[in-house]
Amino acid sequence: MEFLKHIKENDESKKWRLTLLSRYIHEGNTNDIVYSPRKMEGITFGKKGALVGLSVQASSVHRCEPEKTLEDLTTYTEMEIALYNTDGVTTVEELLPECVDEDMIKHLQECFADYCDCYFYVKVEFIEELYHALVEKYGLYED
Questions:
Q1: Residue 11 phi, psi dihedral angles, 5° rounding
Q2: Fewer CB within 10 Å, N- or C-terminus of the chain?
Q3: Is the distance from CB of 141 to CB of 46 less than 8 angstroms?
Q4: How many CA atoms lie within 13 A of 11 on its CB side?
Q5: pLDDT surpassing 90 at residue 54
Q6: Contact assessment for residue 16 and residue 47, using Cβ atoms and an 8 Å cutoff
Q7: Whole-number Å distance between alpha carbons of 86 and 74
Q8: Residue 97 class from Cβ within 10 Å (0-12 exposed, 13-18 middle, 19+ buried)?
Q9: 82-117: per-residue pLDDT in tens?
């Protein structure tokens, strides 16, 4: 999965998890490590002024499978995602109307949580497909 190469944990999340890790080790309770929260940075596409982002999250506090914080991201079969542009949170249908087919619409409707504008338990194969469609339409953002 190519999209996995582009997501990484943000610095604040790393610091928080290291603090928890040292506490768990000190208490002798390393089983709780998989229940610590984690926040990943989004993948950015496009050019300055017209940026699009894909947030991919997987940890004990996100809607993913398994619902644990695992170091090996390839272990997840489903992850939580959100899409955003310069106007804020958006949907796949708005960003990629040409890529949305009947099967995709059904999957998206099953995963979408309108109270937080994100998609829960999205199959990683779908995220990979979405990632490639965003790269093709917008290109990866380069600083």
A1: -60, -40
A2: C
A3: yes
A4: 0
A5: yes
A6: no
A7: 30
A8: exposed
A9: 999 988 999 888 888 887 777 877 888 888 887 788
User: Do the Cβ atoms of 111 and 21 come closer than 8 Å?
Assistant: no
The C-alpha angle 1, 103, 67, rounded to 5 degrees, equals: 50
Query: Both tokens of residue 80?
Result: 């939580």
Residue with tokens 């999250």: 57
- What are the domain boundaries of the chain? 2-138
DSSP letters for the chain? -GGGGG--B-HHHHHHHHHHHHHHHHHT-GGGGGGS---BPPEEEEETTEEEEEEEE-STTSS-BS-S--S-GGG-SEEEEEEEETTEEE-HHHH-GGG--HHHHHHHHHHEETTTTEEEEEEHHHHHHHHHHHHHHH-B---
